[in-house]
Amino acid sequence: MTTSIAIAGAGLGGLVLARVLHLHGIAATVYEADAAPDARTQGGMLDIHEHDGQLALRAAGLYEAFLALVQPGAETMRMLDRDGAVLMEEADDGHGRRPEILRGDLRRLLLDSLPEGAIQWGRKLATVDALGGGRHKLRFADGSSAEADLLVGADGAWSKVRPLVSKEKPVYTGTVYVETWLADSDVRHRASAQAVGGGSLFVPSPGKAIFAHREPGGVLHTYVALNRPETWIAEIDFADKDSALARVAAEFEGWAPALRALILDADSAPVPRPLHALPGGHRWERVPGVTLLGDAAHLMPPSGEGANLAMIDGADLAQAIVARVGDTEAALAAYEERMFARSAAAAVDAEALLHACLGDGAPQSMLDMFNTGRAGE
User: Fold this and answer.
1) pTM of the model
2) What are the binding residues?
3) For the chain, which domains are there?
């Protein structure tokens, strides 16, 4: 009997899962809320690590194609203090330990690797009902439905599948990222472009920080990090570009003009990204016919590992299914034990990195972390 596999969410993890299964002749259907592949922007640069993300792409048979999409020189990293002085700089050595790629390019690579019909667009998951025997019925916002012998929640932070296995919900960490963009920076924003350099920039300090990436076409993509309550976020009208940018920039009074310009000179309204997380070491008892991967399973503060963890989850789950055809429960149990272990370790590192960036010891704590090789890996 063929097992029907439903994957909720066409993010990187869900797509890797579908791709690796496809390579082994196992069909899966991905249900995605977005109406089309280009329905929304897909975020900025991702650094794909040797020990997880790159292994997942190798399992998916896409490693060489991935290398062709990597941004040359983007592994360069630098750290400045609030006055713009260089504290640390690391050149791109070309070894490819954490090559950078646009999330949208990586997602497109995965989408194009799947057979026609494998992804059902415009299927926003509304509810899931257990049918017994490990089977589940998915009901979508458009009124349609589907049934599956195996349901995988790859549907992110606010997963509709998670409640089937866990009562935990993401909670606000006390930190918000505010996202800004500067276009044509080498011509229009030269001082800021010079500050960011050729790759990624870190400017840590107690309670506030600026992180930025250089993207293709001279785009500077910035995340302004602030330890602030949710009430602070609610008080700002982020749709009012000028007032919102001024309010956020006011938190960085006295910082180097080139750094403040990453906020004040933004080309569009800033976007608030409150950071939420599940408890570190989040896990659950085995529930027949359902599991989670990526942020649905282990949402944590940004550390450069989120996309990598989602992809290795997808590859690992697929390989467990392939190795145990006919025994789905054994496959899920094996996958979950490995996933729980690696995500718990990653959550500890993510918390440590956030504290190093924004804790009382910053920027020295961040420098110490870089010098011990733990940051940016």
Assistant:
1) 0.94
2) 40, 47, 103, 295
3) 5-72+98-169+278-362 (3.50.50.60), 171-277 (3.30.9.30)
